[in-house]
Amino acid sequence: MDRHAQRRDKLRSLVRAAGAEAILVTSEVNVTYLTGFTGDSSYLFLSADEAIILSDARYEEDLQEECPGLDCEIRRPPVKMTEWVERVVNRAKPRRLAVEADSLNVAQFDLFEDQLKSTTLIKTSGLVEQLREIKDKEELSEIREAVRLAERAFAVVRAGLRAEQTEREIAHQLEHQIRLFGGRGCAFSPIVAVGPQAALPHAKSGSRRLEENPLVLIDWGAQGRLYRSDLTRVLATGKISPKLETIYGVVLRAQKAAIAAIGPNVPMEDVDAAARRIIEDAGYGKNFGHSLGHGIGLQVHEAPRLSQGEKRVLKPGMVVTVEPGIYLPKWGGVRIEDDVLVTRDGNEVLSSVPKELADCLPAV
Ligand code: ZN
Ligand code: ZN
Hints:
The chain is of the alpha+beta class. The protein folds into two domains: 3-132, Creatine Amidinohydrolase, Chain A, domain 1 (3-Layer(aba) Sandwich); 137-360, CATH 3.90.230.10. 35% of the residues lie in helices and 22% in strands. The strands form six sheets. Strands 4-3-2-1-5-6 form a six-stranded mixed sheet, with helices on both faces.
């Protein structure tokens, strides 16, 4: 059985456990995960004995190529997707149909509820996302490739940094290099933040130049084929102030402590706490205003979350970011982010961009 069929079988058990006979998968990324199909605007109907992609004529060829053997219902204009769903579901007549509450909007839900007379809709959340948390061998090799692409691009861009470059130019260079190395592009719009901008954890890359401040934070990632990476480094572009040295040291210690805490059966909140404790003890607790990390895969932010109050435990095959930070308004911020695989006996850090303070300076 191919890996997509295996995933669909696992989903079938989850759907049964949720009290439904079938599921309508409407999240595009979940459809990709379950079928290998990479187009958009398509749904998957999955019951105990059927798996049908509902798509449209634009994708007929792609479907044959990417998921041969899978049943497809190809609609042509002017038939609407909602009518197509009605047709497929009313033919199979499940009494209870699971829908993805995080993907379907209220208007679609109401419409389906109205049209699917003999079927009760069951709202579910995270069924496929839960499967996606554990990466198989192929997924891991795609993530490794995405990390490698990000690292190669960063090395080239870093070697070419010039004082007069703007944040936006550097972001553009990263994208350009990732594509030259064969990637699809950036995993997300890179954050290149000079000085005070780095105090905003989700800063937009703008027109500030490197020469305006001795600190630049770069948060970037690559998309290889389908999978993504996510890294952050801070570079010093001038003389390092004692303040930067102190804060960098605290964040680096926090990040290393969190990575050391990662392993199978470790509660996710404990990994967050390992980093947070160090930052709090140094007096910067209130300046670390986000959770420690998140899963990466088909999406740059996906389950699980390494955050306070997350009692679930890590499992082998999960890939998470570890990204503590300290942000000081008007001054700047330091965040260090790596991608880490949970293994059977501990963890493996997939990214290898040097991160000791001495490795971060001077960049221009
Ligand atoms: Zn990031
Ligand atoms: Zn991240």
